[in-house]
C-alpha cells in the first residue's frame, strides 16, 4: 500500500502526477522506497472508474477535494512530519489559510471549562484569528459555537468522512460553521465511520494547522492531552487554562502546567504574546481607546453601516454582507471606496477590518 511519504517521494520525481502512471516497473523501482510489489501495483492500476466515482460523490455531497499542492492548503500543516495529502472540505476554503489557534478539551467539561472555551474563542475571533477544533461535544462545541456567534471564523476537523457529521447532534452546528464563512474538513474518504482510532490521527491536523493549541479543560488522559503533545512535537505553542485543585475532568490542565508542557493563560493577551500573528489595526485602536479613522471621515450611510459592523472585528466578506444585508458583489465597490479612504483594509482570506 502506498503511504503519504512514498507518494511524496514519487511526486518529487515527476512534473505531473499523471507521469507516475506512465513510468515502467524499472523506473519506479529506481525510486527510494518503491519495491517490486508497489511498482507492480502502480503499473497495473486500472481503477479510474473508482476515482471518478469518488470525485462525483464528493461534488454530490456539497464538498470539494483539496490536495497538498493546492494554494489554499493550510500553510502550517505543510510543515508537520506527516501532513495529509488530501483534504475533503465543505465551506470556505480560504478559511484554511488564515492564522488560527486550536481550542480543545474534554467532552465532559464543567461550566468553568465551557465558559473558558467560549471566552477565549470570542476573544481570538475579536482579534481576527480563526478557531480550530474537532466538533465534539463539550469544549469543542462551545468553542465553535462561540466563534460563530461572535461573527468569527472557525474550522472543524472531523474524525470521519465529510459526509458523516459526528456527533450527529452537531449537524446544525456544522452547517452554521459553513454558513458563517468557516469550514468543515476531513482527511478521511467519504463513508468513513467515526472509529475511535481516527481521532488521535485527526488531532495532528487540529494542532498542525494552527499557531498554538489551547487546552481549556482536560482529564489526565484523553484526546486533548494527545493533541497537546502533538502540538509540542510539531514545535507549536501549547496554552492551558488553570483549574481549581481537584476539578473533575480538568486535572490534565494543571498537570500540563506543572510539567512545563504548556503556558498558563488567563486572557487572550497571554496567547498573543507568544505567537507571531497580525492583530487588526481596528482592534488595536479599540484596545487602546483610540478612535477608528472612519469616524472622522464624512461617509455616506451605506459606508458608515459597513464600518459600524466592522467595529465587531475582522470579518469575512460573506459574513459582512449578511450582517449589512447587502449581497457580496454589491458590497465590494463600497469596500473598495473605503479602502481608498484608508478607513478599511482587506486581509488574507477575503477578510476586511477597520483601520
From TrEMBL:
Pfam families: DNA_processg_A (PF02481), WHD_DprA (PF17782). Belongs to the DprA/Smf family. Residues 65-275 form the Smf/DprA SLOG domain. Gene3D superfamilies: 3.40.50.450, Winged helix-like DNA-binding domain superfamily/Winged helix DNA-binding domain. Residues 298-350 form the DprA winged helix domain. SUPFAM superfamilies: MCP/YpsA-like, RuvA domain 2-like. One of its GO terms (biological process) is DNA-mediated transformation. InterPro entries: DprA, DprA_WH, DrpA_SLOG, RuvA_2-like, WH-like_DNA-bd_sf. This is DNA processing protein.
Amino acid at each position: 500500500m502506498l503511504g503519504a511519504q512514498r507518494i511524496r517521494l514519487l511526486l518529487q520525481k515527476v512534473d505531473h502526477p499523471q507521469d507516475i502512471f506512465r513510468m515502467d516497473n524499472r523506473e519506479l523501482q529506481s525510486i527510494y522506497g518503491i519495491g517490486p510489489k508497489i511498482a507492480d501495483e502502480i503499473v497495473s492500476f486500472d481503477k479510474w472508474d473508482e476515482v471518478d466515482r469518488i470525485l462525483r460523490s464528493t461534488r454530490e455531497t456539497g464538498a470539494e477535494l483539496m490536495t497538498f499542492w493546492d494554494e489554499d492548503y493550510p500553510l502550517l500543516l505543510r510543515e508537520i512530519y506527516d501532513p495529509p495529502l488530501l483534504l475533503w472540505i465543505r465551506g470556505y476554503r480560504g478559511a484554511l489559510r488564515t492564522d488560527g489557534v486550536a481550542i480543545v478539551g474534554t467532552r465532559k467539561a464543567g461550566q468553568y471549562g465551557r465558559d473558558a472555551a467560549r471566552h477565549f474563542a470570542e476573544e481570538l475571533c475579536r482579534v481576527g484569528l480563526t478557531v480550530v477544533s474537532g466538533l465534539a461535544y463539550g469544549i469543542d462545541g462551545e468553542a465553535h459555537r462561540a466563534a460563530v456567534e461572535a461573527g468569527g471564523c472557525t474550522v472543524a476537523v472531523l474524525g470521519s468522512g465529510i459526509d458523516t457529521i459526528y456527533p450527529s447532534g452537531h449537524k446544525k452546528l456544522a452547517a452554521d460553521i459553513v454558513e458563517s464563512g468557516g469550514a468543515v474538513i476531513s482527511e478521511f474518504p467519504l463513508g468513513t465511520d467515526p472509529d475511535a482510532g481516527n481521532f488521535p490521527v485527526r488531532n495532528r491536523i487540529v494542532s498542525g494547522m494552527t499557531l498554538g493549541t489551547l487546552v481549556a479543560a482536560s482529564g489526565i488522559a484523553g484526546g486533548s492531552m494527545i493533541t497537546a503533545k502533538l502540538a509540542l512535537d510539531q514545535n507549536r505553542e501549547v496554552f492551558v487554562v488553570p483549574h481549581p485543585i481537584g476539578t473533575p475532568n480538568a486535572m490534565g490542565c494543571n498537570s500540563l502546567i506543572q510539567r512545563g508542557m504548556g503556558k498558563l493563560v488567563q486572557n487572550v493577551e497571554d496567547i498573543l504574546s507568544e505567537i507571531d500573528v497580525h492583530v487588526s489595526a481596528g482592534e488595536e485602536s479599540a484596545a487602546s481607546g483610540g478612535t477608528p479613522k472612519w469616524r472622522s471621515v464624512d461617509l455616506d450611510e451605506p459606508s458608515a453601516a459597513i464600518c459600524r459592523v466592522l467595529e465587531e472585528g475582522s470579518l469575512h466578506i460573506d459574513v459582512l454582507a449578511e450582517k449589512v444585508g447587502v449581497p457580496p458583489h454589491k458590497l465590494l465597490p463600497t469596500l473598495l471606496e473605503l479602502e481608498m479612504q484608508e478607513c478599511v483594509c482587506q486581509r488574507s482570506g477575503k477578510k476586511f477590518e477597520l483601520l
